[in-house]
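Hi R.,

Here's the chain you asked about this morning:
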Amino acid sequence: MIPETPTREVQSVRTAFRVVATIQEQDGATLHELSERMDIAKSTVHNYLGTLQSLGYVVEEDGSYRLGLRFLTHGMAARNGVAPREAVTAVLPAIAEEVARPSWWVVEEFGRGLFVERAVPDDASETYGRVGKRSFLHTHAPGKAILATLPPEDVRRIVERHGLPALTGKTTTDAERLQAELETTRERGYAVSEGEAALCVQSVGVAFRAHETVHALGVFGYSGDFSRNTLEDDVPSLLRDAVAEIEGALEATG
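And here is the predicted structure, written out as tokens:
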């Protein structure tokens, strides 16, 4: 969930991570581009870049800076440390093969949805998402399933913090309408989303709790890939069975 805002922040740490985030968003950037985009003096940006480069977190190539592979070590450690990874990765491939569509494990962190792990059948293309993607929970079915599992006050805090931005013309951007959708999700035990995260992309999601964190399993595909029966019966049933298997594994390990 969203942590309380600290009373005192270290501004230099925040700025360093702004540099990192800007380089990532731009898929590489020059000193001049970073200075302009961040509205910080070149000399200041240069000092941050020099420090990050000396630590292996930034690499300079022909005047452009990209993120260093040292981040990969942290990313892999972060993913591997999320419980219950072993139980989830054991069921994802079977879901993907059964529906012939990509299946995803999404985790709520700081009010956003993190795409942690995926399984893609050999004959299917990746429809939506990438490992490490940070998404808005209200825009896809796994995210809505997660929101429906959270207490109303937590949902309110997430909406206040991140808003309800529209990614397409179909994205739910009204808080009252979202609450109604979440109530429907709670009643039927799964969420469905069509064209809200990306046009012509549908998803189905089922959430579960593990170690005080809310997770979801989801299936993504193009609108033409799903029949109504698939969306409302086959896929939700498959996801619920997978969640039951995960919960059983968690109970067995204590």
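One quick note: The domain at 81-253 is CATH 3.30.450.40 (Beta-Lactamase).

Cheers,
M.
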